[in-house]
Every structure is written in C-alpha cells, then in structure tokens.
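Design job #97: recover the sequence.
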C-alpha cells in the first residue's frame, strides 16, 4: 500500500474505507435524506459557522462546488474580481469565462500572496464587481492567501467574497463566518480525510436564499436549486450515496480529533518534513510566512529529474506530486494532509534520503 503525499485524495482511516461498503440504499429513501442532513449539519458545526450558515452538497470533485458558487452568486450584468496567483486562481477565471461572467484578475506571482491593497484598488476602480473570488490555499505552490484581509477590504466596500478552501478547510485556520464571506467551497477528500466524489459549499444562509428566482447558468451546478431541495430532505439528482456514507464517518472522526488538533497535527507534520528535507539540501520555494500547513513545494535536487525521484520514492511506498505549470521542470510537491502523523513524516524524510541518492546515480 502506498502512502499518498499528493494534495488529495488523502490517506484515510480503515473505518472511512469500510464505510463505503454499505447496504444498497435508494437515494429517495428517508435513510439517505437523514444521512445528507447529518452531513450538512456536521459540516457547518465543525467549520464553526453557526445557525446563520448552511451547507450544500454536490456529487462531484471540488471544482464542482467552486463552479456552483461562482456561476450562481454573480448576478447578470455584474462582474467578479479574481485573485490569480496560481493554477486554481486561474481556474476560477476560466470558470467565469465559461459562464459569460465578466471578471477582473488581480495577479501576483505564484510565490507571493495577494496584496489586499491591490484588491481594494481594483474594487474601487470597478463598481460593477459584486463578488471577490480568492483561493485560500494555492496548492500550485503551498501558498496561503490572506483571506481575512481580503474579506475585510471587500466588506468595507460592500462586496461579497467566495473562498476556494479546497485544500485548507479543516487543515488551516479559517473564519468562514467572517463579515464579507458568503461562500466557502471545499471537498470531502482533502483535509476532511474522506473519499473523492463529494464537494460542498458552506454558505451564509441569507446569501444562498437571496439566489431564489435567479435564472440558473447551470442545470446541475445550481447552488440554490440544490439548497432548496436538500432543505426539503430531497435531492435534485442522484447523490454519491456510498461516498456520502464515508464522508459522514470522516466527519465523525474529525469531530473526535477536533479541528484544532488536526490543524496542529498537520503543522507539526509539515515542520518535520521541511526540517528534514532542508537538512538534505532541498530548497523550499515559498517564503515561510506564506507557507501552508498541508503542502510544500521543493526545488528538485541538482541533476535529478522528477520522474526518477518519483519512481524511486514509489519503490519505497510513497507517492509524491509533480509541480504544476511553470514549476513542472524544476520543482515537486509533498503534501502532508490526511491521516499522516509527524512520525510518518520522519519515514518520508528517510525515504527521500535513499531516493535522492538512487535518483542521482540514475
């Protein structure tokens, strides 16, 4: 069995895996609706959001929930400000373009968090912007954007915020109920430690309900349509029943560990990894203040190609991840989300010691 060091799907517990093996269940039966309701309620509670928030579930990868939020939230004739400093910020722009939504990117390089002052300047220059979309954790590099500061700027100027927290929710500190934030999108298979196939939007209930009556841009990714149906213990389409069952188990296990302790475990695992690989001479490409708890991007050792390093690590039971976009030729990524512990990461460091020597000789 391989240990996954990619940023989702993450390593899961045996009990989460076992939850996939359940009796066949029709998605129109009360037992399924009760499971959906429990998952929605636990998501809101564990996110610390309170009764003014709700969770809306989608059968699909994380991009489904991000696209649902963007396609549903921005009114016709208005525009979106997109924070773009990585592959996933760029994807938000691609989503907006696909749905005919005008957008204004605020760019920085992939190693630099967005400057809230640049967001403010763009918002002041474009009165037509109704929402700001920002990726909390850019897994392109392991970069954290200052969501709290961006939300404060947006709120002060009367704009609302959509947060892509795909690989940060429950792994990083994030106040989803902060003034200005209306929608937070994430998925089951990252820091929640569930299985791929379910994503969700945690939304301010008033903002979700305000979408009623708007002509949907998408049949399947209609945020209010899913919300209205789920509120009535119903579903507009067939949900991923078995994956939801595994997600519910993952939520139970997160509740037992607590979000605070999970964040601390991830942070300590990242520290062990980074200190260990730095001792081996590897360079971390994101400056310390902007690094996440869950993923680190390293420069490839001199004379070592990614494929050789990947294969040497895989032979030792570990799956690392290639760099994205311009990073592909000179960097690789190691995630430490999922069930991994600091002790596991010591094993990762030991494996890298041998793998780098092997790849250097190759």
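Job complete. Output follows.
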């Amino acid at each position: 069995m391989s240990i996954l060091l990619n940023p989702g799907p993450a390593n899961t517990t045996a009990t989460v895996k076992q939850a996939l093996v359940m009796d066949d269940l029709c998605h129109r039966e009360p037992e399924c609706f009760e499971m959906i309701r429990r998952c929605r309620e636990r998501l809101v509670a564990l996110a610390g959001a309170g009764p003014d928030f709700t969770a809306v579930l989608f059968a699909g990868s994380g991009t489904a929930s991000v696209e649902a939020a963007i396609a549903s939230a921005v009114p016709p004739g208005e525009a979106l400000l997109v924070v773009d400093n990585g592959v996933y910020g760029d994807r938000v722009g691609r989503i907006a373009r696909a749905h005919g939504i005008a957008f204004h990117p605020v760019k920085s390089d992939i190693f630099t968090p967005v400057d809230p002052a640049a967001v403010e300047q763009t918002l002041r220059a474009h009165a037509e912007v109704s929402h700001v979309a920002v990726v909390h954790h850019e897994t392109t590099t392991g970069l954290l954007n200052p969501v709290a500061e961006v939300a404060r700027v947006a709120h002060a100027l009367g704009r609302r915020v959509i947060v892509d927290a795909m690989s940060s929710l429950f792994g990083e500190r994030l106040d989803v109920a902060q003034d200005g934030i209306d929608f937070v999108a994430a998925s089951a298979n990252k820091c929640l430690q569930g299985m791929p196939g379910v994503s969700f939007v945690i939304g301010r209930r008033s903002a979700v309900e305000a979408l009623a009556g708007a002509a949907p841009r998408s049949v399947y990714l209609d945020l209010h349509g899913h919300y209205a149906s789920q509120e009535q213990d119903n579903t507009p389409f067939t949900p991923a029943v078995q994956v939801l069952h595994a997600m519910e188990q993952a939520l139970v296990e997160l509740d037992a560990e607590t979000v605070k302790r999970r964040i601390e475990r991830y942070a300590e695992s990242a520290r062990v990894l980074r200190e260990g690989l730095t001792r081996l001479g590897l360079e971390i490409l994101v400056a310390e203040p902007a690094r996440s708890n869950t993923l680190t991007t390293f420069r490839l050792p001199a004379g070592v190609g990614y494929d050789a390093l990947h294969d040497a690590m895989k032979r030792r039971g570990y799956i690392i991840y290639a760099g994205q976009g311009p990073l592909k030729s000179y960097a690789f990524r190691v995630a430490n989300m999922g069930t991994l512990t600091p002790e596991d990461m010591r094993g990762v460091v030991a494996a890298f010691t041998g793998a780098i020597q092997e790849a250097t000789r190759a």
